[in-house]
Design a protein that fits this description.
The chain is built from five helices and four strands; from the N terminus they run H-H-H-E-E-H-E-H-E. It is α+β, with helices and mostly antiparallel strands and 187 residues long. It has one domain. It is elongated, with a radius of gyration of 24 Å.
């Protein structure tokens, strides 16, 4: 009788282990991918801050160099050559309350696509750009209008297409993890 009970309990333990193992795998996969996502966002925040600072020191003629340098500085942390783009924009006070985009450069593997369009605006005359009016937060607009005419701020934006390395999105659904990250800094 006791041998029969032990066999029945070992089958029950196997079923409980399989349930627990599935839940444990989901947690471990989630920790891995969410940890990577948090790390990538922090790297992006550092890069946009450094990019805006660098652009403000170098000015309009070297926006292209700044965008390329920021993309290169991502290094092995973010693969900007295939999965991301950097946009550096100069926004100027044109006087009488007019804030316009006066210079822009981009670098990276997805630049020039719909997935990599500046949320600030674009330079008038470029393809797909109707107006060069800048879209910046009101605090930035207020700060820029208090400065003199032709004063400028520099905006660095980074888009990054994030890909999970575990099957967590297949297990929990694609809405759990965003597929594209965005970071911006004004200087």
């Amino acid at each position: 009788m006791t041998t029969k009970m032990n066999r029945e309990e070992s089958g029950q333990a196997l079923i409980e282990l399989s349930f627990a193992l599935v839940i444990l795998c989901v947690f471990v996969f989630g920790i891995i991918d969410f940890g990577r996502a948090i790390y990538d966002v922090q790297v992006m925040k550092n890069l946009v801050g450094e990019g805006s600072s660098m652009a403000s020191r170098q000015g309009l003629p070297s926006l292209g160099n700044t965008a390329t340098t920021v993309a290169a500085d991502a290094g092995r942390d973010l693969n900007m050559s295939t999965a991301g783009c950097v946009i550096v924009t100069q926004v100027s006070n044109m006087g009488s309350g007019s804030i316009q985009v006066t210079g822009q450069a981009s670098s990276g593997g997805i630049s020039g696509t719909a997935a990599c369009r500046s949320k600030v605006g674009c330079v008038s005359g470029t393809s797909g750009c109707g107006s060069s009016n800048a879209t910046v937060p009101s605090a930035v607009t207020n700060a820029l209008t208090t400065e003199g005419t032709n004063s400028a701020i520099y905006v660095t934006e980074i888009y990054y297409n994030f890909q999970t390395i575990t099957p967590v999105t297949a297990l929990l659904g694609s809405s759990v993890m965003p597929s594209q990250f965005y970071a911006v800094a004004y200087y």
